[in-house]
Amino acid sequence: MKAEKLILDGNRVAANMKEKLAGQINRLSEKGIVPCLATILVGDDPSSATYVRMKGNACKRLGIHSVRVDLPSNTTTYELIAAINKLNDDPNIHGILLQHPVPHPIDERAAFEAIRIDKDVDGVTTQGFAQNAFGFADYPSCTPAAIIGILEYYNIPIEGKHAVVIGRSPILGKPVSAMLLNKNATVTTCHSKTANLDNIVRLGDIVVAAVGKPKFVQGDWIKPGAIVVDAGYNKGNFGDVDYDACLKNAYAITPVPAGVGPVTIATLLKHTVEAAEKFGY
Amino acid sequence: MKAEKLILDGNRVAANMKEKLAGQINRLSEKGIVPCLATILVGDDPSSATYVRMKGNACKRLGIHSVRVDLPSNTTTYELIAAINKLNDDPNIHGILLQHPVPHPIDERAAFEAIRIDKDVDGVTTQGFAQNAFGFADYPSCTPAAIIGILEYYNIPIEGKHAVVIGRSPILGKPVSAMLLNKNATVTTCHSKTANLDNIVRLGDIVVAAVGKPKFVQGDWIKPGAIVVDAGYNKGNFGDVDYDACLKNAYAITPVPAGVGPVTIATLLKHTVEAAEKFGY
Description:
Number of helices of chain A: 10
Binding site for NADP(+) (chains A, B): 167-169
Number of domains of chain A: 2
CATH topology of the largest domain in chain A: Rossmann fold
Order of helices and strands of chain A: EHEHEHEHHHEHEHEEHEH
Number of strands of chain A: 9
Oligomer: homodimer
EC number (chains A, B): 1.5.1.5, 3.5.4.9
Shape of chain A: globular
Protein name (chains A, B): Bifunctional protein FolD
Strand order of the largest sheet of chain A: 1-9-8-7-5-6
Strand content of chain A: 5-15%
Low-confidence stretches of chain A: none
Organism (chains A, B): Paenibacillus prosopidis
CATH class of the largest domain in chain A: Alpha Beta
Family (chains A, B): Belongs to the tetrahydrofolate dehydrogenase/cyclohydrolase family.
């Protein structure tokens, strides 16, 4: 008999979130407030342009305003920060998303830092990161928050479980490790210098792949019965996980697409609506 | 034949640090600058009073000014922040240390946040924490920095090693996990909800105990040849590690006292001197 598998359906989680958001947006509109997200795209990277467009479309469908700021690839750090400050000062803008990565000569960290904490709906500032690591952030980074959201939606226990996170970026591996830790998981964070990665991943009751390499996580790295969350998205619609191979051992798994991606966008909308609610009082 | 053991002598590491600091302090004094650390003690907890006194004495011995601010245990958050702001605004104060913990009714986080980032020599602000987690802090928390300092002084490799940290406090477990991760260790962070803690600790090439429980880490939890760092200090001069038992399996170990403690204080002095150097230019 084949063991039953649980496919963690990101579209379902996102739809559930958006249903709740629709009510919040209605209540705001009664007060004359329309939540508004500003997205900033610097340069002409096609993937980044796609992501920004998807975020704008998702806002539109839900009745959230979105303002798009497109800047040329030769924008200076100073000019980018000036653009961010304009959005910081605009009372009609509730959330600001600077699409990562920005072109290389720009000091991305300085640009992130320029975002006002109460508009930092993607948790990219140092202050937002640390508030999240300490467990009191209003807006944790969207992808990490989406991962926790999926696990919680499916009532997957986190407390006391061993979570193995592969990746340590400031907007994904590090904050998701912090959030799992705050949910009382024992957390191991791995990366390119990790020795015997397969053995470490095999310890995981929950495995989060945030590597940025297609089909990187192999099926036999997964402990039988583990939960696999694939936060990767690579060319050709591949995640960071070898889905079919990992599904064999996993109890539950997020597909790519329709896994973490849609919940990340729904989380961004949720944070924007919450920022508008705070602004409105 | 008994395997050779390495006792990681904190007094030796601290002495080495202070020797370098003496030169820096001399050069500052030629410019008419005396580094100055302000310590704030709220209430009358005897251990906290001892720590503050030790820090003040260590300053004195090295020719660093120290200003002690003693506040009664019924101090309000507002009054404490006002005291901190006074120190923030005083150009003669280069570093500010608020002794943890403050009495319960005070919002300690709000008080920590009030410390100017360029005077946050113990890395207690959210901004300081995140800068450290992202690898560009001027002043990481002193105990975590001391732990890294000891490992580096004794040329203990960190990259690619599995570090197991027991504890997840904002000023010890979390930042030391972050620093070990940035030094390319694979890092597992454990805590009171960790299942099978002994088995997890047994994975560690480097084990950091930051639990606050005397002799908590047992000898048979230590993988033969591991490095054991005891960041605990409990009544009766006990660390968080059962020293004699752990020494049997460990290759290297920090004693208590004369392990992490003196290096923590030396690190605080170092950060204060560095803050004075930055102020002086």
